[in-house]
Design goal:
The chain is mainly alpha-helical. The chain contains 14 helices and no strands. It is globular and about 60 Å long.
C-alpha cells in the first residue's frame, strides 16, 4: 500500500518537465484562474479559424478542381497549426501529454476502446482498399494522422487541460461536449444534417472515452492513434463515394451514433470510476496528496 500511496504524490507532469517556458505566462496564469471562460474562448478561437480555413478552401475546390482528399490534406495541415500555436504559446506540451509516450503497463486500458472504435470498422477495410489506389491510401493515412493530432491535441489536450481545474469529470464532459458541438459547423460545408447528428453522437462518446484515456495514461498519443485508426476507413470512403456516406438516413444516424454511446460511455465510466477519479484529482494536483500519517489513521 505504501507504493500505491506514494504514486499519488508524483504528478503525471511537473511544471518544468518537458514544458518549455510559456511565451505568455500571464495568459497561462489567466487560463488557470478562469477555466470556464478560458475554455470557451479557446473553443471560439478554434471554430472561427475552422470556418475561415473552410471559407478559403471552398473556392479552391471549385475553381482549381482540387479533389476531396487534397482539400482534406490542406485543411488538416492548417488545423494542426491552429492547435500547435496555442500549445507553443502556453508551453503545455507536457501538461497535454505530448511528451509522454505509450507505457506498456497502460496497454490494458486501450483494449476495449480499440475494439469499439477500430474493431467495428476492421472488416470494411479490405473492400474499401480494393476501390482505392496507392496514392489515395497514402494521403488518407497522412490525413487521419493530422486529424488525430489536431483534434486530440486541441480537445483532449488544450481544452481538457484548460478546464481541468473545474474537476476530473467536468473537464471530460466539457471538452467532449465542445468537441461534439464543433461538428455542427460542418453544416456550412454542405454536410447533411443527418450525418452531422451521427457525428455529434459519435464525437461526444468518443471524446469522453479518449479524454478518460488521456487522464489515466497521461499521454495524448494513444488517443491520436485510436482517432486516426477509426477515421481511416471513413476518409477513404468519402474520397471514393461521398454521396453514399453523407446521404445517411436519420434512423441510421441515430442508431449508429447511439450504439457508440451505448458501448463507449460505460467504458469511460469504468476508466474514471469514483475511486480512480479521486486518485486522479491527487495526481493532477486538484487535491493534496494524503500524508503517511493520514494513511496510517485510515488503515487503523
Amino acid at each position: 500500500m505504501q507504493d500505491h500511496l506514494s504514486s499519488f504524490a508524483t504528478p503525471l507532469y511537473k511544471e518544468n518537465d518537458g514544458d518549455k517556458r510559456p511565451r505568455f505566462p500571464r495568459l497561462q496564469n489567466w487560463l488557470t484562474s478562469h477555466p470556464w471562460l478560458g475554455t470557451i474562448l479557446l473553443f471560439v478561437y478554434f471554430i472561427v479559424l475552422l470556418r475561415v480555413v473552410s471559407f478559403i478552401l471552398t473556392p479552391l475546390v471549385v475553381h482549381w478542381h482540387i479533389t476531396f482528399i487534397q482539400k482534406e490534406l490542406i485543411g488538416e495541415s492548417v488545423y494542426v497549426l491552429v492547435t500547435l500555436v496555442p500549445l507553443a504559446l502556453l508551453g503545455w506540451w507536457s501538461r497535454t501529454g505530448f511528451t509522454r509516450g505509450i507505457r506498456g503497463r497502460d496497454l490494458a486500458l486501450y483494449i476495449a476502446p480499440f475494439l469499439f472504435l477500430v474493431g467495428v470498422t476492421f472488416f470494411a477495410i479490405p473492400a474499401i482498399l480494393a476501390k482505392s489506389n496507392t496514392s489515395m491510401i497514402i494521403m488518407a493515412v497522412i490525413i487521419v494522422v493530422l486529424v488525430g493530432i489536431a483534434e486530440e491535441g486541441f480537445f483532449r489536450g488544450i481544452l481538457l487541460q484548460s478546464s481541468l481545474r473545474i474537476g476530473i469529470w467536468p473537464s471530460v464532459l466539457i471538452s467532449s461536449a465542445l468537441f461534439a458541438l464543433a461538428h455542427i459547423s460542418n453544416v456550412f460545408s454542405g454536410i447533411t444534417l443527418n450525418y452531422i447528428i451521427a457525428q455529434i453522437l459519435l464525437g461526444f462518446s468518443m471524446g469522453v472515452v479518449l479524454a478518460a484515456l488521456r487522464l489515466r495514461s497521461g499521454s495524448i498519443w494513444p488517443g491520436i492513434l485510436l482517432h486516426a485508426a477509426h477515421d481511416f476507413p471513413g476518409i477513404l470512403q468519402l474520397a471514393i463515394n461521398p454521396h453514399q456516406v453523407l446521404n445517411v438516413s436519420l434512423t441510421a444516424a441515430l442508431l449508429g451514433g447511439g450504439l457508440y454511446c451505448v458501448f463507449l460511455l460505460p467504458i469511460a465510466f469504468i476508466l474514471l470510476r469514483p475511486r480512480k477519479a479521486r486518485e486522479l484529482r491527487i495526481v493532477y494536483g486538484l487535491d493534496p496528496a494524503p500524508t503517511q500519517t493520514a494513511f496510517n489513521d485510515v488503515s487503523a
